[in-house]
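Repro:
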Amino acid sequence: MVETNKTDRILNDIRSYLRMSAAAASRPIASKVIDTQEKAIVYSKLDGKTSQQKISDVTKVAQKTISNWDEEFVRAGLAMPPDEYYPSHRALFSLAELDINVSVLKKREKDVQPPPATQTLDESVPQRKLEGT
């Protein structure tokens, strides 16, 4: 039984060292990818169990935006996509491990939708001059 405890302790030490090394190596890219308060909050919610829709409901960030960000986090090596163990995306690090402080990040500018067309039908259809008038 003592051997198992010693082995477990050594494996835990190795895991901790690898995790700290990976987090340190990931900080430069993380600071570029996680560049707004909203993105940081969404990232912090990626526990592998919570759906994008639930995160959207909690954070008030559109589900499509969360989907795009999740893929960006995966490409940057900051998160894992869903798999057989986790049904949703999972952050590989905490914000603290990445040295990201939400309070110093800027707020995201809301997506700006183009104003609706104000052109009337008369303006959009070329007028023909009637002969004889």
